[in-house]
Specification:
The chain has helices at about 10-25, 35-60; strands spanning about 25, 30-35. It is mostly helical.
Amino acid sequence: MENKKGLSIVLLIPTIIIGVALFEEFDFENLKFEKPALAFVYFIGFALSIIFQFKAFKRLPKDKNIS
């Protein structure tokens, strides 16, 4: 039987928070960020949290039932 891992709640919470902050930083009327430097920092943090989320999701436990 396979052990499947789901998404990590610990990694999902910061991803959602940073994503919402990045979304709120964007000005849809002018199609620009209000503070570009801060938006860049948010984007880097959001990208890293997504990468770590996928790495944790892909990591599978080794099969211990070797006959």
